[in-house]
# Entry
Amino acid sequence: MVSLVAAALARAQAFLLEPAPASARTRRSPPEAAEGAFADLQVAVIGLTPECGSSTVARGLAVALGVPGCRSAQLISVTADGTRDENGRLAGKVFAGGSGPVATVWDIAASEVERASQVAVESDAVFLVAGDHSAPALAQLVSGMLSERFGRVLLVATRVADRARWSGRAIACVPDSRLGAALLARGRRPVGELAGVLTELAAIADEAAR
# Structure
């Protein structure tokens, strides 16, 4: 089956000058929360292409959205091999057990967007991740096309060497940090520029849920 991302890429390549469509959908109403409070949150992170860095972004968001004593977080990966939680077990319910708020981040492979489309539809924030090797204009068009189905889809560029290429297209540029990626793979918070970008993306996701 051709994935939604692959179909959008093909369409964008055929109509490169076509303007990105406006969102045609209204998101579900999030739980009411007082200013500064934490609430349940669902985020979808979609890879534009294989090995584009989307898993690092998803893992980073899960780390950034988890606040000790205030909100827990979990990461669920949707790949061709199945749907699994951060511990590698087959995932079941969207939200983990417990009485406190939970932030759930879905890491959705480019080939599995069709299967996880309902997750994206119900998410408070949807991010499309493109590697720096991708054409910025093409990536922006794909995010606009996916917005037709999922609401507003925010473009994030990874391993960026030249920020100017993505100016006006991506909402954030994630630097290439092998150390940061290694820390995230172990569930630890990175430092420096990568930490700042992930904090910014987490704030955008929280704002979308209000």
